[in-house]
Specification:
It is a single chain. The chain has 127 residues and is an alpha+beta fold. The chain has a single domain (36-124), classed as Alpha-Beta Complex (50s Ribosomal Protein L17, Chain: A). The chain is built from four helices and three strands. It has helices spanning 14-31, 38-60, 65-78, 82-95, and strands spanning 33-37, 104-111, 118-124. It has a three-stranded antiparallel β-sheet. Helix 1 crosses helix 2 and helix 2 (38-60) packs across helix 4 (82-95). The longest helix has 23 residues, at 38-60.
Length: 127
Amino acid sequence: MRHKKKKLKFNKTQAHRDAMFRNLTTSIIEHKKVVTTLAKAKAVKPMVEKMITLGKKVNEFKDDPAKALHYKRQVFSYLKTRNSATVLFDEIAPKFQNREGGYTRIVKLGFRKGDGAPKALIEIIEE
């Protein structure tokens, strides 16, 4: 039975799935939006939200360098590029400092021409 099994497998191994989500998260943070399939967009949304929350905590604990460093290291361990972490800390996190969640939105875009898969745009909202 699949009770309480929330994550989708996408017919990939665990390592491939983890790499795919890390790459998608990094791209969303760098470019502010990405077009992908609806299922992948729904699956990656919590990870992007978690990274933005960690970025907010880095800005929140600027007076306590040990905590700020801890949260920075968590972000660096997940994101692929230093550039994406810089964008997260300098541009995205300060924008959402007074917001409790809901940093991303998913917009349905219709179906892909080749295989009919539902496409979606996942983007970081502008405040």
